[in-house]
Write a structure and sequence with these properties.
five-stranded parallel β-sheet, about 280 residues, 13 strands, alpha/beta, Elongation Factor Tu (Ef-tu), domain 3
Length: about 280
């Protein structure tokens, strides 16, 4: 489904309750966590869903309103007015032809908001990542960049709300450097809350030369765990959820193809997982 296919009605006015930079000092990227509140309105969302953010613009590129989707990064409140947590990376773009720099309209708008400011939202949309009914199911969660947001909510829900989870939960998170890791850094390490859980393990994949913008070394990150991950992929009780930039898809297909010792074998395995509803992607 393309972004332009998502409806922009009905619209709701949310107020910024808090905004916090969650990247560490020393990195050249800015990622913020915003909590948006809606007063006196039922805005029911579930784990893994997204909201749309609408920002008015001057009409550049033929658009008077910019619409972008952001995955909810926390579980719903049990009571009271709805609160929605999103993770936003401030983005700017360089035109390949002219070399001119353009700002990301929605990301800069959101990163510049202060508590009390209003934001127009739509949704919620989609349900890519469902918690299996079987507590013995395994979950292989693979995120890149701000793709960690839905998994933060999912893992929290599994251990805080569902409870007594018997299957393996493995989180593989990629970033160009340790400074760019979200919710797994010195500033905010939410996943330490689950390190005491016998079924949970998180590990990181980083670029070997982050200042050179080399690809993230997924193969090195799972080298010691390759056998375990392949056993999970072979297990009929395993679900694979992937979130982040589209570039992650080719990197993982190459990696899993090597594990399967054949691209054709992996392609068949992946097709079976998709058909069985055990492979879901949220890519942008």
């Amino acid at each position: 489904m393309r972004l332009e296919d998502y409806p922009t009605e009905p619209r709701f006015t949310a107020k910024v309750l808090s905004t916090e930079e969650i990247t560490e000092e020393g990195t050249d990227i800015e990622v913020r966590e915003l909590i948006l509140g809606l007063e006196n309105h039922q805005f029911d969302f579930e784990i893994g869903q997204s909201i749309g953010v609408l920002v008015e613009s001057s009409g550049d590129f033929g658009h008077t309103v910019h619409h972008r989707l952001y995955t909810v990064a926390d579980t719903p409140k049990d009571s009271g007015n709805p609160e929605i947590t999103i993770v936003v990376r401030r983005c700017n773009y360089i035109d390949d032809y002219s070399g001119e720099q353009f700002i990301g309209v929605n990301s800069n708008f959101l990163c510049d908001r202060k508590p009390g400011d209003e934001v127009t939202i739509t949704g919620p949309f989609g349900m890519p990542f469902k918690v299996p009914e079987d507590k013995n199911a395994n979950l292989l969660l693979i995120g890149l960049g701000t793709g960690i947001a839905p998994f933060r909510a999912l893992v929290k829900h599994i251990y805080k709300n569902v409870g007594d989870w018997k299957g393996k939960v493995r989180l593989l998170y990629g970033a160009h450097s340790g400074l760019e890791l979200l919710y797994m850094n010195g500033k905010r390490d939410d996943f330490t809350n689950y390190y005491d859980e016998e079924t949970f393990e998180a590990f990181k994949a980083l670029s070997p030369r982050p200042n050179w913008a080399d690809p993230i070394a997924w193969d090195f990150a799972i080298e010691d765990r390759a056998d375990e991950i392949w056993r999970m992929l072979e297990d009929e009780h395993t679900y694979i959820y992937i979130a982040g930039q589209k570039s992650i898809r080719d990197a993982l297909d190459e990696l899993f193809g090597e594990m399967a010792e054949s691209d054709a074998v992996w392609a068949k395995k992946k097709a079976d997982l998709i058909e069985q509803g055990k492979w879901a992607e949220l890519l942008y």
